[in-house]
Design a protein that fits this description.
Blueprint lengths: L5 H8 L2 H8 L29 H22 L2 H10 L24 H6 L4 H6 L4 H11 L11 H5 L10 E7 L9 H7 L1 H15 L1 E8 L4 H16 L15 E6 L9 H8 L24 E5 H13 L1 H4 L3 E2 L2 E2 L1 E8 L5 E6 L5 H8 L9 E5 L8 E2 L3 E5 L5 E5 L7 H6 L8 E6 L4 H15 L5 H19 L4 H14 L7 H22 L12 H12 L1
Parallel strand pairs: 1-2, 1-4, 2-3, 7-13
Antiparallel strand pairs: 5-6, 7-8, 9-10, 9-13, 11-12
The structure holds flavin mononucleotide and iron/sulfur cluster.
Length: about 550
């Protein structure tokens, strides 16, 4: 179990030294207490990986006790004092829309607090509109999904077959399993009504009378808070039958996740919701908007994406689209972890902040005496970027221009043009103390552990890649192993049922492509004195033990 308040995540857990050590390694086997603010940051060693159903059960129980304890402590003056001192002021470059209430002084997740702040007014406005007009506003807003792929939300909603006669479902993806990402948990813990309001509007727009919030198993406190928010919303008729006299009925149910990374993949999530093993489905034909939950049209959206909907209704699609840059509109939450002075979350206008501004101005630059080496910009599945890279970008007229790493705008299109992706917004920073063999091995260990095993290239390939990188960190790999590793990665890529195949092979392809010499140096036993610092040493021990 990880004591996982904000401070734990940013100070220790999400630091690659420890995040890669624990977070990626056992995504499916860690349980976050979700404690935030009322308890002091957990010590780095506050970790109990569980290895059996019994220990999992005990850990969940323990976490529930922790939740009650937190509530009790929250009423003591000392805890209140601590809560006040933990409040993080937004950085001047931030534009808070979704995180306006996160860690806000005097804020709590109750409906009374939410209503005092103008809550559910956007829902009332939505009911003055036709469902198709809401979808139109979302399309105009240019909102792109914040779960990973950056697919346009409004367009996804229009994929429900027009002649559909089956029930339509709305599913909120609260699995937040991509390593390096820690944003949805804050919404679930601190502002659940924002999500409920966004979901009711989205359900009305797509005609869903039943909606689910799939919450990562490791967030038991979040599930309790969201369930309470749903009850509160129902008691105010923001949910249930004939919502606010509109004639529209909708119910939202919380579904606790099954504790595996693959449960975040939308079709795996749907299988899990149906009570089955989360084996992803092949697309086509199983695009959820056509054949989703119970083979009915299903819209799956990320927590953050659904929260944006209420702001789009309030502002209007055109006004919302003025935030950010062309084709990359609105705000998004960047979760910065790793080797920077001030890691944490930052909500910024998409594309309005460059890599330099993010890492130096907002995160305080590298730790003392160190230099930035590389950045994984969009969660662990995105391709790594070197800090001294210069990218060749195409202009609209067909000509090319050079773009320096530090001038990369943190938006979907620029990061894609640089060969990586904005993904889920998890920016993992590595400095010159990090050995790439260690990073590679850490990622491989995670993906080998999390493959669902359905398709051969992924099941066999991810384990094979881990075995080779194990040899690299042990100092027993040969130069030919690097070639084999690269070849295995390219043979997984594009040959699997779901995008996990790419998620596991892209980091390997990019790290080998960009750090081949460094990896080759580690094939000589004399050089393979891995890991290179105490955090990496602890990670190695953990991997050996796992
Ligand atoms: C292996 C894998 C894991 C994923 N995990 C998550 C996740 O934890 N949360 C999430 O919102 N999307 C995740 N996704 C993306 C979802 O499949 C889906 O695209 C997303 O929930 C759609 O929401 P959006 O359009 O609002 O981004 C994952 C995808 C893959 C391939
Ligand atoms: S790619 Fe991997 S995770 Fe996805 S279905 Fe195949 S085996 Fe499972």
């Amino acid at each position: 179990m990880i004591h996982s308040g904000r401070d734990c995540f940013v100070d220790d857990f999400m630091n690659p030294g420890s995040f890669l050590r624990f977070g990626t390694m056992e995504s499916g086997s860690l349980l976050s207490t979700g404690f935030s603010r009322a308890l002091p940051p957990g010590p780095p060693g506050c970790l109990l990986p569980f290895r059996s159903d019994r220990s999992r059960e005990l850990t969940v129980k323990f976490s529930k006790i922790g939740f009650c304890l937190r509530r009790f402590l929250a009423n003591t003056p000392a805890a209140l004092l601590r809560m006040i001192t933990y409040i993080k002021q937004p950085h001047a470059r931030e534009h808070r829309l979704i995180f306006k209430n996160v860690d806000r002084e005097g804020w709590d997740p109750s409906i009374e607090c939410y209503l005092r702040d103008g809550g559910y007014e956007d829902l009332k406005k939505a009911f003055t509109m036709q469902p198709k007009d809401i979808t139109e506003e979302v399309k105009k807003s240019g909102l792109r999904g914040r779960g990973g792929a950056g697919f346009p939300t409004g367009m996804k909603w229009t994929f429900i077959p027009p002649n559909n006669t089956k029930p339509v479902y709305l599913v909120c993806n609260g699995d937040e399993s991509e390593p390096g990402t820690f944003k949805d948990r804050y919404i679930l813990h601190q502002d659940p009504h924002q999500l409920v309001e966004g979901m009711v509007i989205a359900a009305y727009a797509v005609g869903a009378k039943t909606a689910y919030i799939y919450i990562r198993e490791e967030f038991p406190e979040a599930a309790l808070l969201v369930e309470r928010a749903i009850e509160e919303a129902r008691s105010h008729n923001f949910l249930g039958k004939n919502v606010l006299g509109s004639g529209f009925d909708v119910e939202i149910y919380v579904h606790r996740g099954a504790g595996a990374y693959i449960c975040g993949e939308e079709t795996g999530l749907i299988e899990s919701l149906e009570g089955k093993r989360p084996y992803p489905r092949i697309k086509p034909p199983y695009f959820p908007a056509a054949l989703g939950l119970y083979m009915c049209p299903t819209i799956v959206n990320n927590v953050e994406s659904l929260c944006h909907v209420k702001h789009i209704i309030r502002m209007g699609g055109d006004e919302y689209a003025k935030l950010g840059v062309a084709r990359n509109t609105g705000t998004r939450i960047l979760c910065v972890s790793g080797d920077v002075k001030n890691p944490g979350y930052f909500e910024v206008e998409v594309g309005k902040v460059t890599m330099r501004e993010l890492l130096y101005d907002m995160c305080g630059g590298p730790k003392d005496g160190r230099e930035f080496k590389a950045v994984i910009p969009g969660g662990s599945s995105s391709k790594i970027l070197k800090c001294d890279e210069v990218f060749k970008l195409k202009n609209p007229d067909g000509s090319t221009r050079d773009l320096n790493f530090w001038d990369i705008q943190m938006d979907f299109d620029t990061l894609a043009a640089c060969g990586s992706m904005a993904g889920s917004g998890g920016v993992i920073v590595l400095d010159d103390t990090r050995k790439m063999s260690w990073v590679l091995n850490n990622l491989n260990a995670f993906y080998a552990h999390e493959s669902c095993g359905q398709c051969t290239p992924c099941r066999e390939g991810s384990t094979w890649m881990k075995k080779i990188s194990d040899r690299l960190v042990e100092g027993t790999a040969s130069p030919a192993d690097i070639e084999t590793l690269e070849s295995v990665a390219y043979q997984i890529d594009g040959r699997t049922i779901c995008a996990f195949g790419e998620a596991s092979s892209w980091p390997v392809e990019a790290i080998i492509g960009k750090f081949r010499d460094e990896l080759l140096a580690d094939t000589k036993e004399s050089n393979a004195k891995l890991p290179c610092n105490p955090e990496a040493e602890a990670q190695r021990r953990f991997l050996q033990h796992a």
